[in-house]
Amino acid sequence: MNKRSVILISGGLDSAVTAFYAKQESSELYGLSFLYGQKHNREIDSAKKIGIEAKLKDHVFFTLDLNQFGGSSLLKNSKETIPNNVSVEEIGKEIPSTYVPARNTIFLSIALAYAETIDADFIFIGVTSEDYSGYPDCRPAFIDAFQNLINNATKKTILGKNIRLNTPLLKLSKDEIIKKGINLNVPFEKTWSCYQGKDKACGICDSCKLRLKGFKNAGLPDPISYITTPEWYDLS
Amino acid sequence: MNKRSVILISGGLDSAVTAFYAKQESSELYGLSFLYGQKHNREIDSAKKIGIEAKLKDHVFFTLDLNQFGGSSLLKNSKETIPNNVSVEEIGKEIPSTYVPARNTIFLSIALAYAETIDADFIFIGVTSEDYSGYPDCRPAFIDAFQNLINNATKKTILGKNIRLNTPLLKLSKDEIIKKGINLNVPFEKTWSCYQGKDKACGICDSCKLRLKGFKNAGLPDPISYITTPEWYDLS
Q1: Which of A55, A197, B119, B126 would staple B15 via disulfide (CB 3.0–4.6 Å)?
Q2: Which site among A60, A66, A69 would you substitute to test the B interface, given the most B Cβ atoms closer than 10 Å to its Cβ?
Q3: pLDDT band for position A75 (cuts 50, 70, 90)
Q4: Domain of A109?
Q5: Contact A22/A124 with Cβ under 8 angstroms?
Q6: What average pLDDT does this structure show over A102-109?
Q7: Rounded distance between C-alpha atoms, residue B67 and residue B71, angstroms
Q8: Which residues in chain B touch residue A66, judged by CB atoms under 8 angstroms apart?
Q9: CATH code: domain of residue A169
């Protein structure tokens, strides 16, 4: 095996599992994380820790400020609050205010530049279309369209070499992702999923609820601390 | 006509003609230029001037530093010199060192975020695949692949509204672009095509040669000043 991979690491649970999976598939792993003008950088601290645990060959923290356009409650210049009153069953049915316009398109484009520069074979991204937040740029149709773009976009690919976009979690539910992570020895205690940047996870934003539902369905305790947890999250 | 457009403005001749064309097709024009870690910002000064002449509604100068990856002689951290010894007939036959990995993919992704945020109908980009530099991300197959990506990437497009990628110069030769610009009253004296950042254009880099060949074939004098011009550029 002599495969070089770029892995997008947000600091969340999904990208951590993807990083540990990609490690198995690659001889060299290059991490890419983004400071894109989020309301908090709590997840970036987690991305650093995950990168160290996954023994990356290099880890680029790429800065670009999407507040220049705005359009999302996740961005720091937004006065819109992050929603916390959506029931776990309703999450993903509508595209929420936390959607950042074209975020994954931008992140994958920059990953593509990185991959071409270091002559990587794979780009890994931990998107999931099952227990997900309803974002358009996490769906299989988006991933297929981006692979088609890659095939037509770079010097490397038009000269006949592949850069393959890998999405090992795309069709998995959150509890399946967690079980996969357990098998891969992912340090879940170092991941951060909450949309808030507090000391403990809030337990009520969409991202916390999806994570807690995943651990609940997997029959496992989430190792991180929460300010509060929903009634249905009871592992006793 | 009630159409809002995003236009990518590099400061070069092609994007200036595209901006003036887009102005005719749009009720509101929003400019987007990039400080991406080029060796010089001479072209950005031109982009500002073109933006003012085109009476943009707004003009965003987006900063992201592609030197974090490198891979091109156009980037300021590169020690590679910009080539100036390619004959005008040979330009475009091979992909040159001035190719920046995935640059147009990244620029269009960010344009897409801008377009979605301001609810724009069009994105205009002045790529051309005829008298061009051989870059993979200027070809029709790349443009088609990016349009397909747009259709699958954003909240706006998956909800059924269009964001159309427009490339009015794609099939035009450089002299045809120049003639189109003359008809549109493009202030060519304010554009900058040279890869070098000197007071006058060098006249010997690929970009200068393609521009001079265009003016020569159009039978018109280029209004900007050159340090030197090729023997074949003789309008007397």
Answers
A1: B126
A2: A69
A3: confident
A4: 4-188
A5: yes
A6: 95
A7: 8
A8: 113
A9: 3.40.50.620
